[in-house]
Amino acid sequence: MRESKKARAERVDAILARLDAEYGTEYRCYLDHETPWQLLIAVILSAQCTDARVNIVTKELFKKYRSLEDFAAAELSELEQDIHSTGFYHMKAKNIISCCKDLVEKHGGTVPRELSELTALAGVGRKTANVIRGNVYDDPSIVVDTHVKRISKKLGLTKADDPEKVEYELMEVLPKDHWILWNIHIITLGRTICTARNPKCSQCFLRELCPSAGGMKG
After folding, report:
1. Which residues are known to be catalytic?
2. How high is the pLDDT of residue 218?
């Protein structure tokens, strides 16, 4: 079934209304942190790792390394052991040390706001940069993780596989005031109802609006 631009806009509005009603409109971050630089490190650690595991690791990590300077001066082998359970620990440790050195030496200890400056830091791609921009600076940004890519495709809001293309396509169909919320809501949906291996379509409050659930008949 081909969907007109108007019909899609109306369907997106209905999807967002249901997500807001189900999950609320409060911004929340699943990674524990007290400062912007702690969030940045936590997001770097979260690659190919669960937020729950990262929170376990950072609870002790941020007690041991209390400042950017501490991380910048860390011994690579020691930091590797400290973050070992998050996986890919060699590259993550190397990136964290390099990133923190740049933050201290080039940015005066402040996590930058601009996308170009963020992505110039070691270990920081668009996804990580958009997490920072959204959670630290409240700048409208769409974070494309595995949940967002998978469920946005199921909802027929993107056909792309490349995360950056998904991000731009979602920016075209979602209103700016829901760019940050989209990630928050879709992560929750993806962890509870629209799981990757066994989606519970019959229980989903979006099923009538989802092509993949058979809720949209021509």
Report:
1. 127, 145
2. 45
